[in-house]
Amino acid sequence: MSVGGINVLVDETRAIQDGKRAPLLSVRGVKTYYGNIIALKGVDLDVHEGEIVTLIGANGAGKSTLMMTIFGSPRAREGRITYAGQDITRVPTHHIARMSIAQSPEGRRIFPRMTVYENLQMGASVNGGTHFKEDLDRVCDLFPRLRERLYQRGGTMSGGEQQMLAIARALMSRPRLLMLDEPSLGLAPLIVKQIFSVVKELNERDGMTVFLVEQNAYHALKLAHRGYVMVTGTITMTGTGRELLENPQVQAAYLEGGRH
Amino acid sequence: MNAPHAMTAGTAAPATARYDWGAALKDASLAALVTLGLCIPIVLLRTDQGAGVDLLLRPRIGMVASFVAAVFAARLLHHVLLARRAGRPLVEQKAEVRTTPNAVPWAKMGLYAFMGVAMSFPLIVFLIQGGLSESRYWVDLGILVLTYVMLGWGLNIVVGLAGLLDLGYVAFYAVGAYSYALLSTTFGLSFWICLPLAGILAAFWGMLLGFPVLRLRGDYLAIVTLAFGEIIRLVLINWVDFSGGGAGISSIPRVTFFGVPFSADEGGFASLFGLTFSPMHRVIFLYYLILGLAFLTAFVTLRLRKLPVGRAWEALREDEIACRSLGINTTNTKLTAFATGAMFGGFAGSFFAVRQGFISPESFTFLESAVILAIVVLGGMGSQLGVAIAAIVMVAGPELLRNLGFLKAVFGESFDPNEFRFLIFGLGMVAMMIWRPRGLISEREPTAILKERRAISGSHVKEGHG
């Protein structure tokens, strides 16, 4: 048994002692390499059921790498990732996607030549379209703009609408854990607000667990229950959203220049 | 180049756009000058054999002048056309955008129209030519075109839908052809048993090719598939015991009407149906055979596009990473695309073998792959109708250009149109690349449309950037 495995056991014991359940997603000592270059230098991170957890950090800190590593591409060379008590470190990506984890990847990655409707169909391919109509109505209620544009090609929509589509597509698989990679990237403040309020709604109303990777530290930390700060492949700080917002180091590094 | 149309577009002129004649004339003169420069070494002097062994130099000033004038006129016309497009008022452009959703049923109607014409083609030819044997040339041409339509539709699954650039498609065509040829000559199996076997074998080879190239995309994939096509051909040439080598396989059994041979004697097709024997019966049967196979390809493709696997192919073409994170097994998706495409290539191959009665590796060169790929790209990737039109243009086009006899009236008796047909064909290609760079039909049809259309739906809304 690896060191990571023992860590998980220790954590689980500690969690039970604290009267809490084991985390939904736990990352222990994960190291990821691109060729010979190390991108993640041993990351530990927990996401509990019903939480919004955010990961903030500068460009190139490894935030997106961590998110992709959880999804199995690239693979963690060391360490261990467990989801709902199951080790997913070596599980193929498309199997992970079928374990009720959904991801809206960096840069949205919608299918530009397919219609919004078809994009959403692709999102539902995990559960074979058994409750497609119902889910379609649900995401269209969350993002009314998408209902207007169901038969428009994804690539012809504005950036904000594409981001909505990316989130909606991820929601089509009815995830327990929703992972969002920079949903605010390149969007107008008003649309960012709208998207974040949807995330909040999903969490409060449906009890969905959300893991949010963000550059927009102020908004993300305000929204999140807990946050992690990542610097060049390691977690340097963790705490509740409020604690991190008030931390002078965080303020200096990520919040300087205004709360927008 | 100083393009006047760009200027008129830039100045945001009112509805009646001013046209800058000076710049257009200047540009056309420049083009004419370049032509003159090119013509002096190439066209101006012609060497003719004199009375003895000596060569005579004959200047052809008239010809040079006509070339220069032609280029000048063409360039000027080009400018006028472009300026008219740029100067079109905005209102008109909006109307143009609004018509795009109608393009969807239009494409479907076009496909049905193509099917109708293809079904009745032998009859039409028979009526025009006034006899069975007189229409042989045309029906043969029809068979050739349909073979390429089918190959195009087959490759369209791999290239157009799944976005995997395959330069070695002819390999599966060869596998299909050799499957039928070898199975029928060695084991005496009939065509109708060999046809599905050939499809299965080709699909198997498609998977075999698929495995090593799973991680490749774009140019790299193209190179490996190209090599695969060449390997199959070289094996067929060199493995003489198996395939007969470069000499090929001859006397492959002819097609039968579901067991009834097309022969003149008792028990043949003609006597069975009380007809007078004609070799054209077999040709027309072959025509409908390939038509049926091509329709099968189109039908299966249209159905698959609506199923999860077809949608997964298209999604794979758009974004592989997104596919994987949505729980799609990209390995299986790619392999099914290769296998399905290869299977139809195999069907077409065994048809080729049964039609020709003789096959050799000569028929399966890289050029064939290139032609099939050109058909798919010219037609517009993923478009069924586009591929059908492109196949007609690419295959029947050069053939029909043989019949340019009327040009003799213009250029004199010594003019041989055959020498010019590829020039005309090439010009057509260049024109295509200028005006329709994404293929004849580049609009992709959505696979799912609700019955009710909403007010702001489809491609009504112009492209936006957030």
UniProtKB/TrEMBL annotation, chain A:
CDD domains: ABC_TM1139_LivF_branched (cd03224). Keywords: Amino-acid transport, ATP-binding, Nucleotide-binding, Transport. GO terms for biological process: L-amino acid transport. It comes from the Bacteria. SUPFAM superfamilies: P-loop containing nucleoside triphosphate hydrolases (SSF52540). The keyword Transport applies. It holds the Pfam family ABC_tran. Residues 25-257 form the ABC transporter domain. The keyword rRNA processing does not apply. Signal peptide: none annotated. GO terms for molecular function: ATP binding; ATP hydrolysis activity; branched-chain amino acid transmembrane transporter activity. Belongs to the ABC transporter superfamily. This is ABC transporter ATP-binding protein. The lineage of its organism: Bacteria, Pseudomonadati, Pseudomonadota, Alphaproteobacteria, Hyphomicrobiales.
From TrEMBL, chain B:
It is a multi-pass membrane protein. Residues 24-101 form the High-affinity branched-chain amino acid transport system permease LivHM N-terminal domain. One of its GO terms (cellular component) is plasma membrane. It comes from the Bacteria. GO terms for molecular function: branched-chain amino acid transmembrane transporter activity. The chain crosses the membrane at residues 28-45, 57-77, 109-129, 141-165, 177-208, 220-240, 285-304, 335-354, 366-398. Keywords: Cell membrane, Membrane, Transmembrane, Transmembrane helix. It is found in: Cell membrane. Coiled coil: none annotated. Its main location: membrane. InterPro entries: ABC_transp_permease, LivHM_N, LivM-like. It holds the Pfam family DUF3382. NCBIfam families: PRK11301.1. This is High-affinity branched-chain amino acid ABC transporter permease LivM. The lineage of its organism: Bacteria, Pseudomonadati, Pseudomonadota, Alphaproteobacteria, Hyphomicrobiales. The gene is livM.
